[in-house]
Specification:
Radius of gyration: 18 Å
Number of helices: 1
Strand order of the largest sheet: 5-8-2-3-4-7
Distance between the termini: 57 Å
Number of strands: 8
Strand content: 25-35%
Helix content: under 10%
Shape: globular
């Protein structure tokens, strides 16, 4: 009985790792860190971090500074344009969980969202 209780407790306390997503809702405070020319980590607050990959046709990401990103109804979506004033082939390829061995320190580089369709409902400024 003790063994089965311990096993049940272990199963209940195991958290499921996040999975790849097709979209993310923007948050009020967002930060980023460049990983390479076409990948960056996106903080949606202090705890939630995702790795975003862009298509090879996108310009190389800067090393630091503010980054303007396009949102669609307050969301970042895969297969949609991600940077303003870039051609259509430049889009967001994937949104994956931050690897466990990555740097989890909150960076100071801010994200500036640019809405392409207008925010509806309670999210209006």
């Amino acid at each position: 009985m003790l063994l089965s209780s311990s096993l049940l407790f272990a199963l209940l306390t195991v958290t499921t790792p996040p999975v790849e997503r097709t979209q993310l809702r923007q948050s009020e405070h967002m930060y980023w860190r460049s990983i390479n020319a076409h990948q960056f980590d996106l903080w949606l607050g202090k705890e939630e971090v995702w790795r975003l990959s862009t298509s090879a046709s996108c310009p190389a990401l800067p090393a630091e500074g503010k980054l303007n990103l396009l949102t669609d109804h307050g969301r970042f979506k895969t297969q949609q344009r991600i940077f303003p004033a870039q051609p259509d082939p430049c889009h967001l390829l994937s949104i994956t969980p931050l690897p466990s061995n990555a740097d989890h320190t909150l960076p100071g580089n801010q994200i500036i969202p640019i809405e392409v369709h207008g925010v509806k409902g309670n999210n209006k400024p």
